[in-house]
Write a structure and sequence with these properties.
Layout: E1 2-7, H1 11-25, E2 30-36, E3 40-41, H2 47-51, E4 62-63, H3 64-70, E5 74-84, E6 89-94, H4 95-99, E7 106-110, E8 113-116, E9 121-122, H5 130-133, E10 135-136, H6 140-162, E11 170-175, H7 179-196, E12 208-213, H8 225-237, E13 241-243, E14 248-252, E15 255-258, E16 263-265, E17 268-271, E18 275-276, E19 295-296, E20 302-303, E21 306-311, E22 316-317, H9 330-348, E23 362-366, E24 371-375, E25 383-386, H10 387-406, H11 408-424
Parallel strand pairs: 1-2, 1-8, 2-5, 8-21, 10-17, 11-12, 11-17, 12-13, 19-22
Antiparallel strand pairs: 3-4, 5-6, 6-7, 9-18, 14-15, 15-16, 20-21, 23-24, 24-25
Helix pairs in contact: 1-9, 10-11
Length: 432
């Protein structure tokens, strides 16, 4: 029986291994295995809500073990170290062996077909001081870390204000005017207002000094200018300072320094500018990669130098017929899943495969209790969506992701259970 290993349980990886398990694993046509360094899955576009307590990380996640039991695949917790293409093995650090102190924690696992779906990390572009002084919103752990820092900072401010020991504002600088930066900035005022009504009377959005920093001419440059300007206005109405055409050249414990010699004072720096694949993927096992460490793939999603290795999601560099690379987004990873699953099955039988064609459905950016963006419906070229309708679309996208993993009935139960728990347990907790 052939073994198919999927490394990475993000939006694309978990959907793929679930699909392969249901189709091939259930019928014993192949052995399906998922490898991830974490034990649970959280949809990455929701990380800003974990960081601000708008979403409960203790309920809005999916256990890999539970998913594996329900969908006919196995799960191993570990971190990819290398790939031995000659012997068709992945080398991983086994998390359980490492935790128990074994000296031989690195293990080799055989594969017949390998899928790399590791995702991406923030790109600091080599800017001095960023790694040491900024927080990256890359995964659930970093989101929880940011939430703890925000909570401790806000609570300390409340105590000092009560003792008349502090009159200044809390300065938060967010670098990157894409969806992550915008959505995080929009949730911060609500976070302090929630704390204010929960026993911290000296807090409020007036004590926040939030700067959203973007090097381009406008925030969210992938959206039409009209939509970008609308989002800018909404943020400014929330009290967020939107600084465009501002390139950061250095960071330290005092704040950020711009190319034109300005200083942006900051107590907390969040870096959300640009993405890249993890550094260890750069030319791993001799596979072709680009300057962002993404592995270059054929239109069939196979790596250019090994047909038994597929790459999907943010880790892949996939050129389209129009000469543009597929953007590293959750919707792109979602669209790659059915094509990759189909091609894996066909490759096992030496049959013709499909070419992946990306269909951009648009971008919706949530702004706390509203949203704006551009969406493309069936038969339309895309239209500007805003307000409650746009927010509904944003929420539906998450439910569609859950439905692809859990099915409709379990998604409804999952959603209802999370709401019940959230009524009795505060999301603004510093503890995991």
């Amino acid at each position: 029986m052939e073994r198919i290993i999927v490394v990475g349980g993000g939006a694309g990886g978990l959907e793929l291994v679930t699909k392969l398990g249901d189709k091939l694993g259930r019928k014993k046509r192949a052995e399906i295995m998922l490898i991830d360094q974490n034990t649970e899955h959280l949809w990455k576009p929701l990380l800003h809500e974990i960081a601000t307590g708008a979403l409960n990380d203790q309920t809005d996640h999916i256990s890999y073990l539970s998913q594996a039991q329900s969908h006919h695949f196995s799960f191993k917790q570990g971190k990819l170290i290398n790939i031995d293409r000659d012997n068709k093995q992945v080398i991983i650090t086994d998390a359980n062996r490492a935790a128990l102190g074994y000296s031989d924690a690195d293990v080799a696992i055989n594969y017949d077909v390998l899928v790399i779906a590791i995702g991406c990390t923030s790109n600091d572009f080599g800017t001095p001081g960023v790694k040491e002084h900024a927080i990256f919103l890359d995964d659930q752990k970093s989101a929880i870390k940011l939430r703890k820092i925000l909570l401790s900072t806000f609570i300390r401010f409340d105590m000092d204000a009560a003792n008349a020991a502090q009159q200044s504002k809390i300065k938060i600088a967010i670098v990157g005017g894409g969806a992550t930066g915008i959505e995080l900035a929009s949730e911060l005022p609500n976070m302090v207002n929630t704390l204010k009504t929960s026993g911290y009377p000296n807090l409020g959005e007036q004590m926040l000094d939030i700067s959203l920093v973007e090097a381009a001419d406008r925030i969210s440059p992938a959206l039409p200018e009209k939509v970008s300007l609308g989002i800018t206005k909404t943020l400014q109405n929330m009290g967020v300072k939107v600084l465009t055409k501002t390139m950061i050249v250095k960071a330290d414990n005092e704040g950020l320094y711009t190319k034109d010699g300005q200083t942006i004072a900051a107590d907390i720096i969040v870096w959300a500018a640009g993405v890249k694949a993890p550094d260890f993927l750069n030319n791993i096992a001799g596979l072709e990669s680009n300057r962002n460490n993404q592995l270059v793939v054929k239109p069939t999603l196979q790596s250019t130098r090994d047909d038994t290795i597929f790459v999907i999601g943010d880790s892949s560099s996939c050129m389209q017929d129009n000469g543009k690379l597929v953007s590293p987004t959750a919707q792109a990873a979602h669209q790659m899943v059915p094509v990759c699953a189909y091609n894996i099955e066909k490759s096992m039988n030496d049959l013709p495969m499909k070419k992946f064609k990306y269909n951009d459905k648009g971008i919706i950016i949530s702004l706390h209790n509203t949203a704006q963006g551009v969406v493309s419906m069936i038969g339309s070229k895309g239209f500007h969506a805003k307000g409650c309708f746009a927010l509904l679309i944003h929420r539906v996208l998450y439910r569609m992701h859950l439905a692809s993993l859990l099915g409709i009935c379990r998604t409804v139960r999952f959603t209802l259970a999370a709401r019940v728990i959230n009524k009795t347990k505060s999301t603004l907790s510093g503890d995991k």
